[in-house]
């Protein structure tokens, strides 16, 4: 990259993760001397598909497809989720060659057994587009057209999000190493840890095995006066962060390893007694989406023409 070049990082988030974006930005900037601009994408005017089965799984699932337009269809950009922490110079990600492709996404998934054995983990890990490099000059995406195509049943949510079916195979380069989207795993090679399991993200849960990394980043921000206790307390009062987080920030790094499990249990109990519910708004939206899907399937079934063979089915 040239000295004048600006690394543009667009971050998908909702309001509940706004402070997490600030922590991610701090981790990016302190590991590089490059010029970096971090742009949170919150509350974008994204149309919703008619079929609720194709609805966004988060409030920002489709935001990544808005990036070329936001960038003026000019230059390159990186997409990241808010629930991440960077530990290496972002130039190493930025400089991955496109080799003729229009986007670069994750190459592979490692450490399946260890990370799926973690409490709150899904049964398997799959490749995802949570870290993407985009050649915005060559991507003519318009989110309205993408959603319309789903409404016309040309593809569904999974084909869009998991397979990037809106691109030809030659347009996708699987060049982002796992170390730059390390799903719930950290070791000496990790460049970016992704706290992808929502229920165990360090700001909402006490027991993440690598949560201390995120807490240490926050402690550093506080020490540098780039974040205030009042700002964290506000997120707690809004229900976005767990009440025990301030206690963890202040004391957890001093707790002997043999006592950490007990410490976390007490904090979990304290959070529960306070009435705290993790990701309340996200899970409320999920329940609404599931209800809408059930109603949609019911309406499809009731609209199905009767056939004599139905009685024998």
List keywords for this structure.
313 residues; alpha/beta; Spore Coat Polysaccharide Biosynthesis Protein SpsA, Chain A; six-stranded mixed β-sheet; 9 strands; 13% strand; globular; disordered C terminus
Task: Please describe the topology of this protein.
Blueprint lengths: L5 E7 L5 H12 L5 E7 L25 H4 L5 E6 L2 E3 L4 H4 L8 E4 L5 H5 L14 E5 L7 H9 L5 H7 L8 E5 L5 E2 L8 E3 L16 H13 L5 H9 L7 H7 L8 H14 L6 H24 L10
Parallel strand pairs: 1-2, 1-3, 5-7, 8-9
Antiparallel strand pairs: 3-6, 4-9, 5-6
Helix pairs in contact: 7-9
Account of the 3D structure:
The chain has 313 residues and is α/β, with parallel strands linked by helices. It has a single domain (6-288), classed as Alpha-Beta Complex (Spore Coat Polysaccharide Biosynthesis Protein SpsA, Chain A). It has helices at 18-29, 67-70, 91-94, 112-116, 143-151, 157-163, 211-223, 229-237, 245-251, 260-273, 280-303; strands at residues 6-12, 35-41, 76-81, 84-86, 103-106, 131-135, 172-176, 182-183, 192-194. The strands form two sheets. A six-stranded mixed beta sheet has the order 2-1-3-6-5-7. Strands 4-9-8 form a three-stranded mixed beta sheet. The relative contact order is 0.13.
């Amino acid at each position: 990259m040239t000295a004048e070049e600006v690394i543009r990082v667009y971050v998908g988030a909702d309001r509940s993760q706004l402070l997490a974006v600030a922590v991610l930005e701090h981790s990016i900037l302190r590991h590089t001397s490059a010029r970096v601009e971090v742009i949170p994408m919150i509350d974008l005017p994204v149309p919703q598909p008619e079929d609720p089965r194709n609805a966004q799984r988060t409030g920002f699932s489709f935001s990544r497809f808005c990036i070329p337009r936001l960038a003026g269809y000019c230059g390159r950009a990186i997409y990241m989720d808010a629930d991440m922490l960077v530990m290496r110079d972002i130039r190493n990600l930025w400089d991955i060659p496109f080799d003729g492709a229009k986007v670069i996404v994750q190459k592979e998934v490692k450490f399946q057994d260890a990370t799926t054995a973690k409490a709150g983990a899904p049964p398997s890990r799959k490749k995802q587009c949570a870290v993407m490099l985009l050649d915005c000059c060559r991507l003519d995406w318009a989110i309205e057209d993408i959603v319309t195509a789903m409404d016309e049943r040309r593809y569904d949510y999974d084909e869009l999000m998991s397979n990037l079916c809106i691109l030809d195979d030659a347009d996708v380069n699987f060049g982002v190493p796992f170390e730059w989207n390390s799903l719930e795993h950290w070791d000496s090679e990790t460049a970016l840890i992704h706290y992808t399991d929502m229920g165990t993200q360090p700001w909402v849960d006490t027991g993440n095995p690598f949560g201390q990394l995120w807490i240490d980043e926050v402690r550093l921000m506080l020490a540098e006066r780039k974040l205030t206790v009042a700002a964290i307390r506000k997120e707690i009062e809004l229900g976005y962060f767990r009440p025990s987080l301030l206690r963890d920030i202040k004391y957890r790094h001093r707790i002997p390893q043999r006592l950490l499990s007990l410490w976390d249990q007490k904090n979990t109990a304290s959070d529960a007694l306070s009435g705290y519910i993790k990701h309340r708004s996200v899970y409320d939206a999920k329940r609404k989406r599931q209800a809408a899907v059930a109603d949609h399937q019911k309406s499809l079934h009731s609209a199905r023409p009767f056939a004599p063979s139905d009685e024998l089915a």
